[in-house]
Amino acid sequence: MSACDDGDSWNQFLGFIQDKCSKGEFLNWIAPIKLLRSSIEEITVEVPNIFVREYLMENYSKVLRSFVPLRTSGDLAINFIISEEKKEEPKSLPIEKKVVDITFNTNYTFENFIEGPSNQFVKSAAVGVAMRPGKTFNPLFIHGGVGLGKTHLLHGIGHCIKNNQSKINVQCITSETFVNELVSNLRNKSLDKMKNFYRNMVDVLLIDDIQFLQNKPNFEEELCNTIECLINQNKQIVITSDKPPPQLQLSERMIARMEWGLVASIGVPELETRVAIVQHKAEQKRLKLPQKVAFFIAERVYQNVRQLEGAVNRLSAYARLLHKEISEEIAETTLKELIEFTPQKKVTVESILKSVSAVFEVKFQDLKGESRLKNIALARQVAMYLAKELLKGESLTKIASSFNGKTHSTLLHSWKKISEELSKNDVLNRQVQMVKRNLS
Ligand code: ADP
Ligand code: MG
Q: Which of 80, 126, 142, 242 has its CA 20 to 30 A from that of 429?
């Protein structure tokens, strides 16, 4: 170590980030880094593996700039030495129980999953895979927005397989737990054990939230190898994600693998499905909920099933604490904050047109006009679709007439066309979500 800096800068960095990250994170990632040399020009650290280097640079390269010397190029003057993994003789590998093992949520069964047009297809695919693991679509890739039931379906597959064939080893992981497990096995030099477990002992691998692996190429590669190895043995893989494969920042190889089987999207449930979900959740909580109230909730909370569930939970707590039956007025006051989040109140045909015109990059006037140019006509249909979806209180005839005197049946036609399109067109789906977000 140079006389100019006795590792002070590194120690200061450690002191600084110790408060910024969790204890587990610190122990897993930061503590194993050893400072080898430190001078005013550069520092050299030893890391147990490339993952730790990657983690450090990904999360702390900005912070490090305040502590570590910089090169003239402006880059951090930090050298990494990867300590050689001592190869442990992999003679006989005792199979250990996995460290991380997500047990399935008992509520997340197929029976408790309410179907509607937005999720029927993906539910059938999930059931198909659960009935004949490894024999139909492999992998099955499920994508969709937050709170729309991806994890629920994934666990549903797990339950179903376990119930039918208890000998099958079903493992459910999130890609985050996979990363953590990988790190702790790297630290304990037990990587071979972990590899052996995933590649030879698992029959069905359910991977939740693959998007967490984005920008972590080394972890991704490890998981990709595992997936390939399992698929080659006809072992079933199911993956969930918040985006479709091409939109994930993952390697081409991984994306190709994920697209190999069946890619299915799960959409925002329609009003009728939302009502059914609310009623089902209320039944589960033994909450008596008049149909009117179920509609009241479903009409106002429409982006996310978890929020619908939240609304039911809140009403259930209210009913239990105050021994009162739930009326529409009670629902309105109890769910005030939840509902104020949704754009329900302020939305008008005008505001929808404005938002659609911005997102679809067509002129506001064109939307109101008669042009049949493809992009304009599509945007107009989307606006009609959204008007029907969002302006619940108003009559369809009145809504239709705000579109330059269109008829009720033109409105319905547009609504139907866009609804169908949304179930298979991700780009459109995102655009519509964007319009909705703009509105709120
Ligand atoms: P995601 O993983 O897509 O973010 P989850 O699977 O965690 O969403 O679902 C959020 C909540 O909504 C869960 O409690 C789940 O049971 C419920 N849920 C989602 N979709 C449905 C559905 N179609 N029927 C019943 N409950 C659902
Ligand atoms: Mg989830």
A: 126
pLDDT in tens, 42-63: 899 998 887 888 888 888 888 8
Could you identify the residue written with the tokens 């619940």? 392
- Does the structure show a pLDDT above 80 at 191? yes
Q: Are 358 and 438 in contact (CB under 8 A)?
A: yes
Residue 83 tokens, joined: 């300590």
Q: Is the CB of 146 under 6 A from ligand 1?
A: yes
**Per-residue pLDDT tens digits for 80-108:** 988 865 444 444 444 444 433 457 898 99
Beta strand pairing call for 170-174 and 34-38: unpaired
Residue 344 CA, ligand 1 centroid: distance in Å: 22
pLDDT value, residue 4? 52
Q: Is the pLDDT of residue 423 over 50?
A: yes
Q: How far is the CA of 413 from the centre of ligand 2 (A)?
A: 34
Residue to mutate, 242, 271, 306, 308, ligand 1, most ligand atoms under 8 Å from C-beta: 306
Question: Could you tell which of 104, 122, 152, 212 is best to mutate to test the pocket of ligand 1, judged by most ligand atoms within 8 Å of the CB?
Answer: 152
Task: State the Cα–Cα distance between residues 122 and 137, nearest whole angstrom.
Answer: 12
- d(C-alpha 182, C-alpha 192), whole Å: 10
Decide whether any atom of ligand 1 lies within 6 Å of the 279 Cβ.
Answer: no
